[in-house]
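Quick sanity check, DUF58 domain-containing protein:
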Amino acid sequence: MARIGETTAPVALQDALVRARTRASLIPDLLIEARRIINNVTAGWHGRRRRGIGENFWQFRPYVEGEAVARIDWRRSARDDHIYIRDREWEAAHTVWLWADRSPSMLYRSRLADVPKESRALVLILAMAELLSRAGERIAWPGLTDPFAARNGAERLAQYIAHADPSAAKPDLSLVKRMSDVVIASDFLDVEETKRWLAPLTRSGARAYLIEVADPAEETFPYAGRTEFRDPATGAKLTAGRAETVAEDYRRLYIARREELMDWCSKLGWSYTVNHTDRLASDALVRVHAAMAAGTDLRL
């Protein structure tokens, strides 16, 4: 049987601790890649009239007569016919929560892709951490760190990730407060599980920015002839005598899953963007940054 792709966890290393250490050893390289991407992206913004990302998270409210004039934000007020005050309570409480999926399905990499899904997800999240930290924003990884602000925020976050258990369950999001943004990179293969997990965010009023990391083979299904499929989480196997006969149905279901999540996010005012592992990570970062700047939903 021809092989299109495989999970990237070392087959010879059966011990879970050794596998975890092997994956953790890759984190510094991923941080370097994340910084390279951010430097390239921000260099493209140099000299343009573009708001700094720190401004994207300031909350404003209309000025009320009698309030101190010194609290007026004239820069924001100049954009339209209203006078605005910066809500300092919102600013002080604001945190951007960052999380990358490291579950077994994220270890997949086909011959069509440049990197495994897990590596791309981590690069995206570390790049966001770098961008946000440079802007003075507070960041955190749910279930792993408390919110913190530091110029070396991405490096600190990478150190936490390197010592974390990659097989840990998805974090509890019920502690994420209203004055928060959440950026999540995952493959989102299970729609109902995703909705249940993100349900606390829908109740808290936090804003979410979902990045679907997809291997091109998952989307195009380039399989033919006798093909064995294996569930990376359970190890269960399914053998198809002629894989090409189910390709059309598979692609329809795969895209329907994505569209359902896109529609759900759109109704909530969240953003949903897709990043394929045979394309540049910077493509997704630019789109997520645009969604944060606009404060509206994004479907790309």
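Posting the structure with no commentary besides this: The CA atoms of residues 34 and 127 lie 4 Å apart.
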